[in-house]
Every structure is written in C-alpha cells, then in structure tokens.
From TrEMBL, chain A:
One GO location term (cellular component): glycine cleavage complex
Alphabetical list of Pfam families matching this protein: GCV_T, GCV_T_C
Keyword annotations from UniProtKB, A to Z: Aminotransferase, Methyltransferase, Transferase
Enzymatic class: transferase
Gene3D superfamilies: Aminomethyltransferase beta-barrel domains (2.40.30.110), Aminomethyltransferase fragment (4.10.1250.10), Probable tRNA modification gtpase trme, domain 1 (3.30.1360.120)
Origin superkingdom: Bacteria
InterPro entries reported in the protein's UniProt record: GcvT, GcvT/YgfZ/DmdA, GcvT/YgfZ_C, GcvT_C, GCVT_N, TrmE/GcvT-like
The keyword Amino-acid biosynthesis belongs to this UniProt entry's keyword annotation: no
Protein name: aminomethyltransferase
Similarity comment text for this entry: Belongs to the GcvT family.
Domain Aminomethyltransferase C-terminal: 303-378
Amino-acid positions noted as binding substrate in the UniProt annotation, renumbered to this chain: 215
Automatic annotation (TrEMBL), chain B:
Domain of life per record: Bacteria
A cellular-component GO term for this protein: cytosol
UniProt cross-references to Gene3D superfamilies, sorted A to Z: 2.40.50.100
Organism: Devosia ginsengisoli
InterPro entries registered for this protein in UniProt: 2-oxoA_DH_lipoyl-BS (IPR003016), Biotin_lipoyl (IPR000089), GCV_H (IPR002930), GCV_H/Fam206 (IPR033753), GCV_H_sub (IPR017453), Single_hybrid_motif (IPR011053)
Name the UniProt record assigns to this protein: Glycine cleavage system H protein
Length: 389, 121
C-alpha cells in the first residue's frame, strides 16, 4: 500500500521536519510532501477548523514581478507593472492598493483557465507585485509571465530559496501575535513584510481552507526555525495534504487540474467575481468574447456543490438527473469531516443547477441520491475588519 | 480456529466452514480514517479474488477482495453506521463479512500470521 515512485522528487526545506513529525510522505506535484501525520486526516481537519493547522505549501509557486526601470512615481510605476500582467489575466491589478491581494485567473485565448493565482501589490516596493501560482502549472505560468514581461519587468522565482507555510484556523491570529505581532493588523487579502529570523517574512492574510489564516513566505535558512516556532505553540499542529484537500473542498474552493482546467471558463467555474468590473467593461482580457457572452447568456455547464448520500462520489463519477440520464461529472469529491457526510463539486447544465434540485451520482455503477446545495459547504470564516466609524 | 492473510491485507478467520473477513490492522493504519464501507449482499457468490467490499477513507476508495471462494452468509451491519469500527478494532468488531468457504484447500495458498508479519515489516 505504500506509495513508491521512481521519479526524482524534490524536497522542501521542511522535509526532515515532516519525517521527524511522523509525516507519511507521498509524491505530490513533483515534491515529496506529507499526506498526513500520525493523528490522521480526520483529526487534522477538525484541528484546523477548531484551533490552528500548519501546512507546508512550499511546492507552490511564489514569485515577485518587478519593473526594470522605475519612474520614481509610485502610482505610475504600479500602473506600469499592472500593464505587464493584466493582458494575461482576468483581474483589476491597476486598482489594487499597496499591500492588497487579489485572486485572479490566468486565461487562454479561448477563455479557458490556465491557472488560478494570487496577485498582490507590494506594500513596500513601487512597481512590484507578489504572485503565487499553483505547483503543477508553475513552470508554464512563469514562462508565460516572463514572456509577457520581456524588456519591461523581471520575474524573480521564490519557489526554491524560500519555504511557504500556511497557518489556518480560528487560533491562527493568536499564534501569529506571538510570531509577528504587527501581522495581526492585516485585513483579509492583504500582506506585508515583517522582521523574523535572519531576514524578513512575507505574511499574507489569506489561505485556502475557508478559515482565517496566514500564508508566510520565509527564506529557506529560516524555514525550520519558523516551523518549529509555530509548532511550539500548543494551538498549532502540522497538517498534511489530505486534510488540506478536504478543508478546501468543504470551503467550496476550486482546485486547479480538478475543478478548473484550460477548457473551463471562469463563468462555468462560477468564478465570475474574478473578472473585475473594469476588465469586464473594457473586455481586454484573453478569451473575453466567450467569457462575456457566457456572462450575458449563461454557460452550457456550471460548477455546483452536491451533498451525496452514501459512498463518497470521487472525481470522475458521473452526475445523473433524477431519471438516470448522465448530465455531468464530479470534479472533486470526498468525505466532509465537519459535516459527517459525502460532498462533491462538479459541472452540470444550468437547468439542473438550482439549489435543492435532486440529482444522482454514479458510484461504482450504482446510482446514489445527491442534492444541489450552495457552496461553501462549511461557511467561510475569513477575517473581516470592522469598518472605521 | 486459524487466521490467514492475503498479500492485499485482508484476513480470514476460519471457524469451521465459515470464514470471517476483514482488513488487517496494518491496512487500517495505512488507509487512515475510514468513513464508508460498501458491504456485499448476503447470498452473493464470490470467486477467490473477486471484489467483495469497498472501504473508503477520507482520501480514497479501496477494494476488498475475497480471500477464498464462497457465499456471503452475513455482513457486519454495524459498519454502516460506524465505519470507524474498522480503525478501532479491525480484527474483531470491525469484521466486514462472513463467507461459507467453498473449498477449504484455497486457505493453504494464503499467508499465515508469521508470513504476513514478514510481509508488513
């Protein structure tokens, strides 16, 4: 049952720490990473929802995109760096305030999603962006960004000389208060750099579990010390890839390569919010013709959430209508530890996508009842700053 | 009474002409938290190596194969409400199904406890 692999797996700066903590290491996106620790996926999942979970996400693709030549005018430099990245993506980057992060989509000319990514305006450096892409697509993403930046900006990859940690859960903020006290003033979807160890850490208030939390970029030489410092807090436990996946599924968040791929449009994926208003009005993003038409007239399929009765419906399971006709396919599915039942996401024609609609899923050839429900399956608990009165 | 094992981590505890089948402690540890068990139907006739049941963890589904040929005589209905019994007590309360053994000779092809222990070292 042990997974073995002949491929030459990369390791993160925390490889030894995972082994020492009893992590069950598996190949993932070309890296050897822990799928779980001895307490198991269910316990790790629940711990993250109740306390704080610490994840090694160093396999992802953090990077910095910086202008070659600065004008000295911060707003003009931000406009210039935004103009480099915006032709590739769906989001309004020009409109970001310093330190603000935006979830965006890298698109192809057919309006399909090449990746989903976080793009942030540097709070410190004019003409600088912090960009984090997915592990599986990072080489292609970076090549695409570099090609677009040629002669204008430089892409600095930070996926080999840094570690990226995610601290997620309701206690994350109280733990961060011990590590970088000023970081707890960050609002949701903002970031800044703070002194820690021998260098600065880059702390983003975001994550992919549906909980309040932080992602922390740390230079490799400080990674183990930061990991240990976080785990020294009794509210923090290390969490593997298994619970990372069940947490994001409960949060209704799509996963690239599963719920998103280069044939799926943002409208089909129910990510219309990632097409910023200004970009929509101008229609200046790749695949705008298809995406705007789908936004206007509706797509032919749309991502829905399903509560499944019985065995979990995994990726690839057929979705059937009440009469048993195949109408779609599950793109992510499994067991939701917080709910104690099976949940799934998949694509169906909009006529079947109404909440409460009764469908079926085919698991090992057997039709099981499923109901279309709103996502997230478990409410998001992102930190929202009270508005100044 | 004797217990035999397959290289796929099923056990069969033989009581007379009946076998009680489940997965080993090693298997439940490897699978992690079990969240769903698809039981065979009573009366189902199985050949050795047939898929008899499916055990699902949070992450994945794993097929459970028949260690020997026979007919399913009883299933552990408690697993429907409490699949975690397999994690808690795989070789007693977490048994999966009972089989009327068609050919006791097939038991000789299975591993004994010592051989299975060697396999999972």
């Amino acid at each position: 049952m042990a997974e073995t692999s002949a491929e030459n797996l990369k390791t993160t700066p925390l490889f030894e720490s995972h082994n020492a903590a009893g992590g069950r290491m598996v190949p993932f996106g070309g890296y050897s990473l822990p799928v779980q620790y001895p307490s198991g996926i269910m316990a790790e999942h629940k711990w993250t929802r109740e306390q704080a979970g610490l994840f090694d996400v160093s396999h992802m693709g953090p990077s910095f995109l910086v202008l070659d030549n600065l004008s000295g005018d911060a707003e003009a430099d931000h406009a210039a760096i935004s103009a480099v990245i915006e032709p590739l993506i769906s989001g309004d980057i020009a409109g970001l305030k310093p330190g603000q992060i935006r979830y965006s989509l890298l698109l192809n000319e057919q309006g399909g999603v090449l990746d989903d990514l976080m793009i942030a305006r540097s709070p410190l450096v004019a003409g600088g962006l912090y960009i984090v892409v997915n592990a599986g697509t990072k080489d292609a993403d970076f090549a695409r960004i570099e090609a677009a930046a040629a002669g204008k900006a430089r892409l600095i990859r930070a996926d080999s000389n840094y570690a990226l940690l995610a601290l997620q859960g309701p206690e994350a903020v109280n733990v961060m208060a011990q590590i970088a006290p000023d970081a707890i003033d960050l609002g949701f979807m903002t970031y800044n750099a703070f002194d820690w160890g021998s260098d600065k850490i880059v702390v983003s208030r975001c994550g992919y579990t549906g909980e309040d939390g932080f992602e922390i970029l740390v230079v490799s030489r400080d990674a183990v010390a930061l990991w240990d410092a976080l785990l020294a807090d009794s509210r923090v436990k290390p969490i593997g890839l298994g619970a990372r996946d069940s947490l994001r599924l409960e949060a209704g968040l799509p996963l690239y390569g599963h719920d998103l791929d280069e044939t799926i449009s943002p409208i089909e994926a129910d990510l219309g919010f990632a097409i910023s208003k200004r970009r929509r009005e101008v229609g200046d993003f790749p695949g705008a013709a298809r995406i705007l038409a789908e936004r206007e007239s509706g797509p032919s399929r749309i991502r829905v959430g399903l509560i499944v009765e019985g065995a979990p419906a995994r990726e690839g399971a057929e979705i059937l209508d009440a009469s048993g006709n195949a109408i779609g396919v599950v793109t992510s599915g499994g067991f939701a530890p917080s709910l104690g039942k099976a949940i799934a996401m998949g694509f169906v024609p909009p006529a079947h996508a109404t909440h409460g609609n009764k469908l079926q899923v085919s698991v090992r050839g057997r039709a099981q009842p499923a109901e279309v429900v709103p996502t997230p399956f478990v409410p998001h608990r992102y930190f929202r700053k009270a508005k100044a009165s | 009474m004797t217990t035999k094992f397959t290289p796929d981590h099923e056990y069969i505890r033989v009581e007379g002409s009946t076998g009680i089948v489940g997965i080993t402690n090693y298997a439940q540890e490897a699978l992690g938290d079990i969240v769903f068990v698809e039981l065979p139907s009573v009366g189902k006739v199985l050949k050795k190596g047939d898929e008899a049941a499916v055990v699902e963890s949070v992450k994945a589904a794993s097929e459970i194969y028949a260690p020997v040929a026979g007919t399913v005589t009883e299933v552990n209905d408690a697993l429907s409400g409490e699949p975690g019994l397999i994690n808690a007590d795989p070789e007693a309360g977490g048994w999966i199904y009972k089989i009327a053994i068609a050919d006791a000779g097939e038991l000789d092809d299975l591993l004994d406890a010592a051989a299975y222990a060697d396999l999972t070292k």
